[in-house]
Amino acid sequence: MNEEASKIFILKVLKAFNEKNISVTKILLQKFVYFSMLKNFYNLFRFQPYTYGPFSFDLARQMERLVFWDKIKIDENNQVEVINYDDFEESDEEMSGKIKDDIDAFMDMLDSGLSFSTLELIGTVMYCVDVLKKQEK
User: Fold this and answer.
1) What is the DSSP-derived secondary structure letter of residue 45?
2) Contacts of 1 (CB under 8 A, 6+ apart)
3) In 1-137, where does DSSP find H-type helix?
4) pTM score, two decimals?
5) Torsion of CA 99, 37, 118, 12, to 10 degrees
6) Average pLDDT over all residues of the chain
7) What's the gap between Cα 45 and its chain centre?
8) Other C-beta atoms lying within 10 Å of the C-beta of residue 119
């Protein structure tokens, strides 16, 4: 995992959600990052099956680092918010555009809302489909 690239990716994702006025929880971030990585073949985080679908301990640790360095905050309701854009530049406009497109596609899949159960269901289905595709190869 490229530490700097993964940090920038998380910040870009959070910024794009903010621009679309969508509140981000830790679970939404986990499931969206998994979706975006599958769609765009990014290899920034390792995901594995977990209690409620795909989960990345790499992503969770990177979020903890961003909290420690005062780049993001996570409140008592697990809402994630960028609080410091220092050292963050829009260096990769193509990636930012893909992230925004991915958010639109992801939100279209979630027409029933952003509930915990919906996010877990979508994450589990995406994971199963990905595993089945890999087994076909």
Assistant:
1) S
2) 44, 45, 46, 58
3) 3-19, 26-40, 57-68, 93-109, 116-136
4) 0.86
5) -30
6) 87
7) 10
8) 21
Quick one: residue 76, left, alpha or beta (phi over 0 = left, psi -120 to 50 = alpha)?
Answer: alpha
Query: Quick one: CA torsion of 69, 80, 83, 90, rounded to 10 degrees?
Result: 90
What are the tens digits of pLDDT across the range 57-108?
A: 999 999 999 999 999 999 999 999 998 776 666 666 788 888 999 999 888 8
Tokens 């961003």 appear where?
A: 66
Spell out a b/e string for 18-40, using b for 16 or more CB atoms within 10 Å of the CB, else e.
Answer: eeeeeebbebbbbbbbbbbbbee
- Asked if 9 contacts 56 with a C-beta cutoff of 8 angstroms, the reply is no
- The helix/strand/coil state of 71 is coil
Backbone phi, psi, residue 111, to 5°: -60, -15
Q: Does residue 49 sit in helix, strand or coil?
A: strand
Burial of 2 (0-12, 13-18, 19+ CB in 10 A): exposed
Quote the distance between the C-alpha of residue 3 and its chain's center.
15
Cα–Cα distance for residue pair 85/48, rounded to 1 Å: 30
